[in-house]
Design brief:
Length: 419
């Protein structure tokens, strides 16, 4: 008898608790527990970002919430996912609790974070309610501008050599007088105007500007060969980062920057433009570019540049020349550009293939891999050499050095008057 009474009391307790807990859902659209996600609308590729889930309790009783996120593969948590979720939080009556965790985007483009799953119940009770609030969030992952910020910092301190940029050619300092301004601690003492300093009784610096209105066009290869990893990033991500740094340097120098994206066809085009908004426009165009399953063809890009760009320009290809066929394709298309434009071609080295080609083989299978890797590297060298003989400046660079080399080529062409 006592057991039946206890069982009946337990049933009544569960029913009453469930009624108390579910009652707000019947009278309020938002329900007993409200969840809101705070997440940046723009995330930088490879840079940590914070997501905040705000859990609000609308009941007059404490609530325990068990929360599980369903993150897309392109977003990795700062620590092991199992250490972060499922997360259990105790929310006080009519209160709110913020759950914070970090993510690191691994791919560019649009990313959608679906709504989390919740299991809610009154603290110390038996009733539980499973729900999924409507808080889906969409953000875009853009290339990191950390290299652009680092460039500006080192330029102000006259230490660009730390990232491999040789600014000693006089371009960044400029050769045409622009204006006078107050001396800054990072200014070169050679730019101090001593007469103006004496008149104004404080240090005054002369500001020079470089020759302006030169055009630079970057052609980014988005074909299948750019999916290969180069260090921590894909070759396409390396090319995108280099294009954004070059866009910043070009527009900061008063010149115009244009952009083309191609694979087997021309995928995107931005005519050369100047001004501070150029980098943002290039970012908007490049942030969701992904490698296609097709091989690259240089003909559409070269034809578009030759027909749309009538002024002389520096044309920089950020691509890969994996074999003889790709090299011959570039050589056939170079006459479309060489009669008017200055052409440069930069590729990223395959460190894994180089390591395989130099690794002593331990057997027949390893010997076959070593020979195949050596043959691939030799074909790439021949392709670059043929493109150089046809009039293009070609260079293969280690991962991370693409941006510095492209900037150096631009500064060199600018200082020597090749444009």
């Amino acid at each position: 008898m006592l057991a039946l009474l206890l069982l009946a009391a337990l049933v009544v307790f569960v029913v009453v608790e469930g009624r108390i807990f579910l009652w707000p859902r019947a009278t309020r659209r938002e329900g007993a527990v409200e969840v809101r996600r705070q997440m940046p609308r723009t995330l930088d590729l490879g840079e940590p970002a914070e997501i905040v889930l705000s859990v609000r309790n609308r009941l007059g009783l404490p609530v325990v919430v068990r929360l599980v996120e369903n993150l897309p593969e392109s977003l990795a948590t700062a620590g092991p996912f199992e250490d972060v979720f499922p997360a259990v939080v105790r929310v006080p009556p009519l209160g709110a609790v913020d759950l914070r965790y970090g993510v690191v985007p691994g791919e560019r483009g649009r990313v959608e974070v679906p709504a989390p799953w919740l299991r809610c119940g009154i603290a110390g009770g038996l009733a539980r309610f499973r729900t999924r609030p409507d808080c889906t969030h969409v953000s875009r992952v853009v290339p990191s501008l950390a290299n652009v910020v680092r460039y500006d910092t080192l330029r102000r301190s006259h230490n660009l050599s730390a990232i491999g940029i040789h600014a000693g050619r006089g371009f960044l300092r400029g050769r045409e007088f622009d204006r006078l301004r107050d001396y800054h601690v990072d200014d070169d003492y050679r730019d101090v105007d001593w007469k103006a300093t004496a008149r104004r009784d404080r240090p005054i610096t002369r500001v020079y500007r470089p020759e302006r209105s030169q055009d630079v066009i970057v052609a980014v290869d988005a074909s299948r060969v750019m999916t290969a990893r180069a260090g921590g990033l894909s070759k396409l991500d390396e090319a995108v980062n280099a294009a954004l740094v070059l866009a910043h340097v070009v527009t900061a120098g008063g010149d115009r920057f244009g952009l083309a994206v191609f694979d087997a066809a021309l995928r995107a085009w931005m005519a050369p433009r100047s001004g501070a908004a150029t980098v943002s426009a290039a970012l908007d165009l490049l942030y969701d570019i992904s490698p296609s399953p097709f091989d690259a063809s240089f003909a559409p890009a070269c034809t578009a540049i030759a027909t749309r760009q009538t002024r002389r320009a520096l044309v920089v290809f950020l691509t890969d020349l994996p074999d003889r066929v790709a090299g011959e394709d570039l050589v056939r298309c170079l006459p479309l550009l060489r009669h008017r434009h200055l052409v440069a071609c930069f590729t990223t080295a395959d460190r894994a293939v180089e390591a395989l080609a130099t690794k002593p083989p331990a057997g027949r299978r390893d010997l076959a891999r070593t020979l195949a890797a050596a043959e691939l590297l030799e074909e790439k060298r021949r392709a670059r050499r043929r493109a150089s003989d046809a009039g293009a400046y070609c260079a293969e660079l280690p991962p991370g050095e693409l941006a510095a080399s492209a900037v150096n080529r631009y500064l060199d062409a600018k200082s020597r008057g090749l444009l």
